Amino acid sequence: MDSIERNAELGIKMMRDRSPEADPAFWESEEFVNAISWWKSEYLEANVAVAMAHISEQEITDIVEFLKTQTGQRFLDITIRLQPYYDEANAKVLRGFNEKLKCAQRKYREP
Questions:
Q1: Which positions ≥6 away from 72 have C-beta within 8 Å?
Q2: How far apart are CA 42 and CA 4, in angstroms?
Q3: Are the C-beta atoms of residues 83 and 7 closer than 8 Å to each other?
Q4: Which residues of the chain have pLDDT under 70?
Q5: SS3 state at 16
Q6: Distance between CA atoms of 16 and 18, rounded to whole angstroms?
Q7: Which residues contact 60 (CB under 8 A, 6 or more apart)?
Q8: Counting C-beta atoms within 10 Å of the first and last residue's C-beta, which end of the chain has fewer, N or C?
Q9: Distance between CA atoms of residues 77 and 71, nearest Å
Q10: pTM tops 0.70
C-alpha cells in the first residue's frame, strides 16, 4: 500500500506541475480527493488481478522477500519514482499512434 501512496503523491505532484492555472482549492476538493481514492482502489485491484493471473505463489513470496532487502527497497523506490514518467511516455506514444491511425483512416475514406 505504501507504494500506491507514493505513486499517488508523485502523480498528484505531476498533475499540479502540469496545471499551474488550476484553482488551488481544486487540489483539496472533495471531488479530487474522491477521484484519487477511487484510483488507489482500482489501481490496487487491477494490479493484484494481474499478479494473481501471471505470477505463482512462490514467485510472489520470492519477490516479497527481495523487496524486504536494501537492494529491493532501492529498486522499489526507483520503480515508483519512474512510473509516472513511463506512464507519460507511453501516453505520448499512444497519442502519436492514434494520430497516425486517424491519418491512415482518412486516406481510405477520401474519394
A1: 66
A2: 11
A3: yes
A4: 1-3, 110-111
A5: helix
A6: 5
A7: 51
A8: C
A9: 10
A10: no
